[in-house]
Specification:
mainly alpha, Arc Repressor Mutant, subunit A, 2 domains, two-stranded antiparallel ribbon, 10 helices, 2 strands, 59% helix, elongated
Length: 206
């Protein structure tokens, strides 16, 4: 997530794009040096928040097409506003999938580096587990992930009810069939990914 200095630059470029580094430096009126600005611009470019057009002194900065995909959103601040004051996107933008995701990651470079470190830590931890222990951990993950993901979509199953459904196929009283199907589909999807490790990234040997 961009820090305060980075966000100020992004906001300026969003309004004035395309603009040079000199125009950004003069426009944001910060106390740090021009060299510091250039370093921050390079970081924003590395994280796919900004793109450059032109070369040398003719270089201009614009928002990256990936910005709408990775831009930070303060959910609490958004819902503090009255509904009429909220900036609502009424139509889904299919280009996010067909064009943006095709060329950009949904994670910034910093986030990918963090994920790689967490992946190494995870692999180290599971290497110390027996097959039975590992299976139990995956079962727990499937329950927690299916429950939380479905809850975000409006599912009213509790965590305990989700566990009973996924482990014992016991539906909860007063809940709809659609809610149970949603949870079971989440579990089936996770099982499929675990059993077919090359499905999402066929070029990677796991």
């Amino acid at each position: 997530m961009p820090d305060e200095r980075q966000q100020k630059i992004i906001d300026f470029v969003k309004i004035k794009s395309p603009c040079s580094s000199k125009e950004i430096f003069d426009g944001i009126n910060e106390t740090y040096s021009y060299a510091t600005l250039k370093r921050i611009l390079a970081e924003l470019k590395d994280d796919d928040y900004l793109l450059t057009k032109g070369l040398g002194k003719g270089t201009k900065y614009i928002l990256s097409p990936a910005y709408d995909l990775i831009r930070p959103i303060d959910i609490d601040k958004y819902f503090e506003k009255e509904i009429d004051d909220r900036q609502i996107i009424k139509n889904f933008n299919p280009a996010i999938i067909t064009k943006v995701l095709k060329n950009y990651s949904s994670f910034t470079k910093g986030e990918l580096d963090k994920l790689k470190l967490l992946q190494k830590e995870y692999q180290k931890n599971i290497s110390q587990l027996s097959k039975t222990e590992y299976k139990k951990e995956l079962e727990r993950l499937a329950i927690d992930l299916s429950w939380k993901s479905s809850q975000i979509e409006g599912n009213t199953y509790t965590l305990l009810e989700t566990e009973r459904l996924l482990k014992e196929k016991q539906t909860a009283s007063g809940k709809t069939k659609e809610e149970a199907v949603m949870l079971l589909n989440h579990k089936d999807t996770l099982d499929f990914i675990i059993e077919n490790t090359d499905y999402l990234n066929p070029n990677k040997i796991v």
